[in-house]
Every structure is written in structure tokens, then in C-alpha cells.
Design brief:
The complex is a heterodimer of chains A (107) and B (127).
Chain A lengths: L3 E4 L2 E4 L5 E7 L7 E6 L6 E5 L3 E2 L7 E6 L2 E6 L9 E6 L6 E2 L3 E5 L1
Parallel strand pairs in A: 2-11
Antiparallel strand pairs in A: 1-3, 3-8, 4-5, 4-9, 5-6, 7-8, 9-10, 9-11
Chain B lengths: L2 E4 L3 E3 L5 E8 L7 E7 L6 E7 L4 E4 L7 E6 L4 E6 L8 E8 L2 E4 L2 E4 L2 E4 L3 E5 L2
Parallel strand pairs in B: 2-13
Antiparallel strand pairs in B: 1-3, 3-8, 4-5, 4-9, 5-6, 7-8, 9-12, 9-13, 10-11
Classes of the chains: A mainly beta (107), B mainly beta (127).
Chain lengths: 107, 127
């Protein structure tokens, strides 16, 4: 099983801030990593796949980077609609695993 | 634009089974892969298993092997997930999701990221 560790678990920020969320993986997964955003009571939405490719329709203030075992999601200028929980997920191994989530809240 | 529409909420007794369906509207999914992901109250996401409907090929999470069965009806554009021997820890929101694509290598089917999700089905297990 590939383990995913996100940090921080909770992130407090203000509108307009730049924030980064880290996802560390227990083994090399190349670029087989996706990021999802989930708002309360809703299904997750795909933001980024292939570690750095923006899904269609996702604002350009979102970006992803990394490969191997260390990955980062960056939101360059937080908007009010960005306060949500974010998950990383690996699809390198046939048993697909998620990080535990990072809740982004308003400071 | 395909949408995945899931069946309604369920309340089940411990030890029983539940079957949740996921129907594609506005498109087909037979050549894609469909996975089921669940989320217990206040918790994170857990992948349960998936299927490529056109082949009927399935893959399950090890911790649920033997309790979960995923099937698909290509003509009905529907995927189903059945979970048996229910316990209170199975109380969760269950989502179906379509993988953007898949590939085959080293005798395994590998699914990519999940780009379309159902609305979720709440399953409550309580005596």
C-alpha cells in the first residue's frame, strides 16, 4: 500500500493570501498524482492531475508541482470560494489511496 | 457532458447488504473506468474498488475484499456497488466516480484521476 501524508491538516489563511499544501508519498509514484477540492456536503472536484496539469475549467491561481515522493498544491491568491478541504491521491498503484485531507479555513 | 446520478439514501441493519447504483446521463461510460469511493462522517476519502464496464474487469481495495462487489450494465449505462455484512463503521457517503482514462500494463489495468463524480449516497448502518 502506498501511504500519503498531507500537511498541514488545517490551514488558516485570508483572502488574497498565497498558500501551499504538501503531499508526501511513501514511494516513488512519478507524476501519478491528482488533487481534489471538496466543499461541505458536496462530491470532490478534480483540480489537477499528472501532478501539475490543470483540469479544464479550474482557475489558473491553482497550480501543482513535484514528482517522485514530494508534491505541492499552491493557490496563488485565495478567493472566498477556495475555502474547502483538499485531498491528494495517487494513481500509480492499482490500490488508489488518498491523503488525509487539508482543511483550508478563513483566518 | 456526462453526469453520474446515484440512487437514494439507505438505512440498513448490521449484517445486511446494501446496493447503490450509479447511472450515466448525457453520455456513456462503458469504455471508461468507474470507481467507488466512500467517506465516513467527518473523515477522508477511501477508494473501495473499480470496474471497466466494457470488460467487466474489477479491482478492489484489499481491506474490503470479499465484502464488496462492483458490477456494471453497459446497456443501462449503470454501475452498481454492493457491500455485504454491514457494520456501523460502514456508515458513510458513497460516491461513484469516472476515471478520465485507463491503461493496461504488466497484466493490470491502471486507472487515472477521477474527473466526474456522482452526487453521493448516504448509507446509514444502525440497529
Amino acid at each position: 500500500v502506498i501511504w500519503m501524508t498531507q500537511s498541514p491538516s488545517l490551514l488558516s489563511a485570508s483572502t488574497g493570501d498565497r498558500v501551499t499544501i504538501s503531499c508526501r508519498v511513501s514511494q516513488d509514484i512519478s507524476s501519478s498524482l491528482a488533487w481534489y477540492q471538496q466543499k461541505p456536503g458536496k462530491a470532490p472536484d478534480l483540480l489537477i492531475y499528472g501532478a501539475s496539469t490543470l483540469q479544464g475549467g479550474v482557475p489558473s491561481r491553482f497550480s501543482g508541482s513535484g514528482s517522485g515522493t514530494d508534491f505541492t498544491l499552491t493557490i496563488s491568491r485565495l478567493q472566498s470560494e477556495d475555502f474547502a478541504t483538499y485531498y491528494c491521491q495517487q494513481y500509480y498503484n492499482v490500490t488508489y489511496t488518498f491523503g488525509q485531507g487539508t482543511k483550508l479555513e478563513i483566518k | 457532458q456526462v453526469q453520474l446520478v446515484q440512487s437514494g439514501a439507505e438505512v440498513k441493519k448490521p449484517g445486511s447488504s446494501v446496493k447503490v447504483s450509479c447511472k450515466a446521463s448525457g453520455g456513456t461510460f462503458s469504455s471508461y473506468a468507474i470507481s467507488w469511493v466512500r467517506q465516513a462522517p467527518g473523515q477522508g476519502l477511501e477508494w473501495m474498488g473499480g470496474i471497466i464496464p466494457v470488460f467487466g474487469t474489477t479491482n478492489y481495495a484489499q481491506q474490503l475484499q470479499g465484502r464488496v462487489t462492483i458490477t456494471a450494465d453497459v446497456l443501462a449505462n449503470t454501475a452498481n456497488m454492493e457491500l455485504s455484512s454491514l457494520r456501523s463503521e460502514d456508515t458513510a457517503v458513497y460516491y461513484c466516480a469516472r476515471h478520465s482514462h485507463w491503461n493496461y500494463r504488466f497484466n493490470y489495468y491502471y486507472f487515472h484521476s477521477m474527473d466526474v463524480w456522482g452526487q453521493g449516497t448516504t448509507v446509514t448502518v444502525s440497529s
